[in-house]
Amino acid sequence: MAKADPVEYTFDVNGLDLYYDQTQALKDISMKIQKNQITALIGPSGCGKSTFIKTLNRMNDWIEGCHVTGQILFEGKDIFKEVDSLALRYRVGMVFQQPTPFPKSVFENVAYGPRIQGISNKKELEEIVEQSLRQAACWDEMKDRLHQSALGLSGGQQQRLCIARTLAARPSVILMDEPTSALDPISTQKIEDLALELKEKYTIVIVTHSMQQARRISDKTAFFLLGELLEFNDTIEMFTNPSNPKTEEYITGRFG
Ligand SMILES: Nc1ncnc2c1ncn2[C@@H]1O[C@H](COP(=O)(O)OP(=O)(O)OP(=O)(O)O)[C@@H](O)[C@H]1O
Q: Cross-referenced SMART domains, in alphabetical order (predicted)?
């Protein structure tokens, strides 16, 4: 008898607790994040969404007093025991709320990661830059200004450039922490369309305060409250038939 295909999970989080000194910010989080899906993290301010997303590529390592117990498997390997944190951050890229281009040219922003990874051949770098800008839907707008400063781009263009920079490091996951909250509606729509295209090749985890955004683009939604994962389900199911009354209150705007 043919074996069923194994379900593919990019992350398998088990019993994750996180403390900032004595204060517990994440409580016993367990969830599986599926490959080539968009998973939205929602919940009121201070509930632990950013803390959780930053744990997935160990960015919290830089915070003094922050410690973690429990397990996160990334593509089957324990990120705290079996994976080098720098290598992890190439595989699990991150885009922030405020676009963060370097004060360098468009080209150098995108070539930065590959250069650090040891690629110095000009033609190879040009290919990576073009491919990454195309994937991030920036090429047509930016091909004639590759050698101009990235700081001259609009906020929405800067955010897509940051996505291109992330893609150039050849990740399999893109973490997005409120990537559109500083952007106008048209730029927001471009990033949402882009996320939907990118999930064909990448796993995406996005923190958002916009219920509409979670609904429009995510396959799964995780609702956090006071450091706990209260509900995790298919987005359609969560928004039409939430199983926890707190989830319902939050998504219908009664608190948060
Ligand atoms: N570097 C830090 N040191 C100490 N406490 C922190 C730190 N970062 C976050 N916290 C605390 O951890 C808790 C969760 O914060 P976090 O930023 O993860 O929430 P959030 O859900 O992302 O909030 P928001 O939607 O406002 O961004 C909060 O109580 C916050 O004050």
A: AAA
